[in-house]
Amino acid sequence: MFLGLMKKCRSCRRFDNSVKISDNDLTAIMECTRFAPTAGNLQNLDFYVTNDENETAKIFAQTKWAALYKNWEPAPHERPTAFIVICTRKNLEARRNWLRIDVGIAAQTIMLAASNIGLSGCMIGSFNEKVLLEELKLEETHHIELVIALGKANEKIVWEDAETPNDYAYYRDENDVHHVPKRKAADMIINK
Ligand SMILES: Cc1cc2nc3c(=O)[nH]c(=O)nc-3n(C[C@H](O)[C@H](O)[C@H](O)COP(=O)(O)O)c2cc1C
User: Fold this and answer.
1) How many CB atoms lie within 10 A of CB 153?
2) Which residue is closest in CA terms to ligand 1's atom 1?
């Protein structure tokens, strides 16, 4: 059921670092992503896909996690074991606003595709782009728009109805369960 997949597909920030993501799983996720729509069907996004241990460590080092959890990041045994880095091309700068919409659609497609095969992910928009471009040897050609961490979840996450429009702050309870408030659909619709 699609609603079930949407509810299950939460941002995960604590993974089981001993579970490596296979090439097959990454191929399956990208096979879904190729069918995501793009403005004008131009399909101009490029993806850096890796499950290599050295590369994932380098990418992880440039990412920032859970702004609401001060001074926290996944411990070594909780780190993701794959990344998909979504890039736009520098020579398409004029279309970057459109391309960034494509990025969002591709990103959620990756998240859903991962969830659907029992994996979890987290979109990371907060990262050191300059260093990451150098690490990935893309500085001449690309911008990095979004990084997606992937792995096998090793944390409990629940969603709950947001009580007020400003109730957006995710939190961990005394049992270390991550809670994610979500506005009710009726509260999101302005023309009622
Ligand atoms: C565009 C975008 C950028 C994000 N950047 C980060 C980030 O840099 N670090 C992080 O830990 N989470 C990041 N997230 C995850 C959000 O914090 C998360 O989606 C939000 O807390 C809601 O939780 P949910 O994804 O489980 O619904 C990002 C999400 C989106 C959509």
Assistant:
1) 19
2) 125
Q: Could you tell me the residue range of the domain that residue 175 belongs to? A: 156-192
For residue 124, give the nearest of 97, 154, 145 by alpha carbon: 145
Same structural domain, 58 and 135: yes
10: CA distance to ligand 1 center in Å? 9
Q: In the chain, how many domains are there?
A: 2
Q: What is the pLDDT along the chain (192 residues), one digit of tens a residue?
A: 999 999 999 999 999 999 999 999 999 999 999 999 999 999 999 999 999 999 999 999 999 999 999 999 999 999 999 999 999 999 999 999 999 999 999 999 999 999 999 999 999 999 999 999 999 999 999 999 999 999 999 999 999 999 988 899 999 999 999 999 999 999 999 998
Closest ligand 1 atom number to CA of residue 111: 25
- If you search the block for the tokens 């409990």, which residue do you land on? 156
Candidate of 11, 62, 158, 182 to mutate for ligand 1, largest count of ligand atoms within 8 Å of Cβ: 11
Closest CA to 155 of 3, 13, 8: 13
Claim to verify: residue 176 and residue 109 sit in the same structural domain: no
Is 178 a pocket residue for ligand 1 (Cβ < 6 Å)? no
Pocket lining: 64 vs ligand 1, CB cutoff 6 Å: yes
Backbone angles phi, psi at 27, to 5 degrees: -65, -40
Same domain assignment for residues 171 and 123: no
Same domain, 144 and 192: no
Q: Are residues 16 and 83 in the same domain?
A: yes
